[in-house]
Each structure stands twice: as structure tokens, then as C-alpha cells.
Write a structure and sequence with these properties.
Largest sheet: 2 strands, antiparallel
Number of helices: 0
Shape: elongated
Structural class: mainly beta
Helix content: under 10%
Oligomer: single chain
Strand order of the largest sheet: 1-2
Radius of gyration: 23 Å
Number of strands: 6
Length: about 100
Amino acid sequence: MTSTFSGRLSTTERTDIAFEPVLSTLVEERMLSADGDRFSDTVEFEIADGSAPWPSREGDDGQIEYAPVLAQGTVYGPFEAPRSPATTCPTMPRPRGTLQ
């Protein structure tokens, strides 16, 4: 038996959920001397509330492979006192290094 269907497909609601990784850092020492103290930072990635799950796929060996996320940053200083978090770079910054 063969059946033929025709018509239109319509939706009343569209939901797009974006993957939103969130980066957080935790430094071992809040203040470093200008004499060459080594910068150390623990970096963690999570997903934001309401985010789609971390993109993944099954690899050839059957193991789950997660999409890589790359973060780059620049360390500035020295400053007289700890800086508050900001979305812009400090005035006349002195780059001390980069990390990836």
C-alpha cells in the first residue's frame, strides 16, 4: 500500500538555545611583586544557566569528544592596589604577559 501526503508544515514557536561557555579564574596570589613573581591562575569553564549542553559527539572509538574552547588573555600590571573586575582594559596598561 502506498500513501501520498501533501500539505504545509508550520510551527507556532521557535526556540534557539545557544551554547554559552563561562570562564572563571582563581589566582593563587592577589598581589605579585614587580620583581618577577610568577603569575599562576586556575581557569575553569562551565556553561551558563539556560545554555545548551556542551557540544559533543561520539568519536571513532566510541568515546564522547567535547568541543574545544580556546581562551586567550593578557596579564597587566604592576598596579599599586588590586583592581576591580572590568570589561575594559585599564588606562595606560603595562602588559606583563599573555596566556592561552
